[in-house]
Amino acid sequence: MKKIHLIPIAIFLIAYNGFGQTIFELKPAQSMSITGKGAGQDAAFNPYSENTSIGIIENIGKSVFSIRVQEKGEIIEKKAIGPGETKKVQLLKGYELYLDSKMKAKARVDFKKHTD
Question: H or E segment at 109?
């Protein structure tokens, strides 16, 4: 009987971890594609990727890292983000969001719909 109750809990935790993950740990000298590569390749799901959206990146670690926005390999924007800082970047359809770090870093990434 206890196993029956554990199955729905396990399914919920797996689904929550797969879709709710917005915290990333970067290793030294790591570059991570966050969005823009496509289904199954993005590290974070941007529910507004078919339109213009806003990426909200918060540095929750102790080291500086960079935010990079690209389109088809061309760098559109690059910003450094220090510990405790939050930065917003505009992501047009087709833009890719990357996090680059020279040191160990930790980031929280969220998205919101762009409003005119």
Answer: strand 105-113
What percentage of the chain carries pLDDT values higher than 90? 47
Global model pTM greater than 0.85: no
Distance in angstroms (rounded) separating the CA atoms of residues 17 and 34: 16
Which residues partner with 32 through β-bridges?
99
For residue 90, what are the contacts with CB-CB under 8 A and spacing of at least 6? 52, 53, 54, 55, 114
Q: Is the Cβ–Cβ distance between 104 and 61 less than 8 Å? A: yes
Tell me if 16 sits within 8 A of 96, measured CB to CB: no
CA separation for the pair 68, 111 (Å, rounded): 15
Distance (Å, whole) CA 70 – CA 96: 5
